[in-house]
Amino acid sequence: MRRDKDLIRKLLLFAEERHDFQIGFEGNIDSASSEDFAGITEGDLAGHFKLLIDSKYLEGSYLKAEDGIIYAVAVTAITEKGYDLLDSIRDNSVWSEIKQELGIAGESWSMDVIAKLSSRIIAKKLGL
Prior knowledge:
By secondary structure, this protein is of the alpha+beta class. Helices cover 51% and strands 16% of the residues. Strand 2 (58-64) and strand 3 (70-78) form a beta hairpin. The longest helix is centred in the last third of the chain and has 15 residues, at 111-125. It is elongated.
């Protein structure tokens, strides 16, 4: 799985909207069955939820089968760290600028870089 910044943003926005939720995966590797995630494979979806939980952006857990494949995710809340990131990338125009600037760096980015870029972009918009 390759980390997808757009999917990370989408999952944070989804978690904010839904609050406390569970998602089960049926092993459909082609695409997730929910219309919220159309076109995204269950593997990518599960992997990105795992990334957000392990990195402490979301509070929750995931269940793995013996073969290591995640078959369910439960999210109970967005953490303060998660809200900080989400609030910095929520605005579509800020997000577009972040992606444009990240494009200059190619595939080299991290969540911390995204947060720093958004802070700089927001400060510039505020004339700071």
